[in-house]
Amino acid sequence: MNSLEQALDFARQAHGSQQRKFTGEPYIEHPKRVAGLVQTVAHTEAMLCAAYLHDVVEDTPVSHQDIEQRFGREVAHLVHELTDEYMKEAYPRLNRKIRKQKEVARQAGISPQAKTIKLADVIDNTRDIIKNDKDFAVKYIPEMEALLEALQGGDFKLLMLACYEVQKAKLELQQWRKSGKGA
C-alpha cells in the first residue's frame, strides 16, 4: 500500500462512523473530495496525504504525534497547520466570532501548501453548507470571505474557485432571504 492509500485508509479508520452534519454521508467523503481538488493543481504527495488527514486531529482522538510517526514530519506539519487551534473546546470563553478571527490571523501565516489544501476544504464545505443549511451559512459565508483574504498565496486556481463558490453562496443567501425563507 502506498502512502496515499495509507493516508486514506488511516483517515477512514480514524473518522470511523462519523457522518457529515448536513448530509449524513460517511465523513471520509469530505477529505476525499478535498484531496481530489488538490489533485487538480500543482501538488505533492505530502499535500495529498495531508488533504486526506486534514480533519483527523481536530475531529478524532488522533494526535499530531500519531500523524508524524505514521506519515513523517512534512505531512504532520501540514496537518498541524490545517488544524483549527481556536476550537470551542480549547477556548470555551471566547465567542465564535473572536475564535474565527484569531484562526484567520493564524492561517494567514501558514505555508502555501497548507493554504492550497485549506482552499480545497473551503470549496467543499461551502458547497455542502449552502446546499444543506442556509441558516448556518448566514454565519459561515462571511467567515469564509475573511478567510479567503488570509489564504492568498495558496494555489491561484483554487483561490479563484473558492472566491467564486463563496460569492455564489452569498448571492444564493441574498435570494433566499428575499424569498422570505431566511430570517
UniProtKB/TrEMBL annotation:
Question: Which Gene3D superfamilies does the UniProt entry name for this protein?
Answer: Hypothetical protein af1432
Q: Does the keyword section mention Ion transport?
A: no
Record key words, sorted: Hydrolase
Give the top-rank taxon of the lineage listed in the UniProt record for this protein: Bacteria
Note the InterPro entries from the entry.
HD/PDEase_dom, MESH1
Q: Which PANTHER family match?
A: GUANOSINE-3',5'-BIS(DIPHOSPHATE) 3'-PYROPHOSPHOHYDROLASE MESH1
Q: What is this protein called?
A: Bifunctional (P)ppGpp synthase/hydrolase SpoT
Query: Which organism does this record belong to?
Result: Cesiribacter andamanensis AMV16
